[in-house]
Amino acid sequence: MDQTALALKIGETATLKATVVPSDATNQTVAFSTSDMAIATVTPVIGKVTAVAAGTTTITVATVDGAKTASCEVTVTEA
Question: For the chain, what are the domain ranges?
Fold first, then answer.
């Protein structure tokens, strides 16, 4: 993932990027998820994070087979 920590204010968005290596891997598909949707949501395929409420959550990206994962701690503060 291109970031391991991210700070947003409520209502802001950011897009996380994931790179699968090696670049010629058979399956390049990944899925993003959040540990707390009440703090920040994330689109599963694109990785667009939306800050919902103040707090901290973890956004995780994983290969579809679950073999590789990476995470980003997202801290959301009041606007």
Answer: 5-69
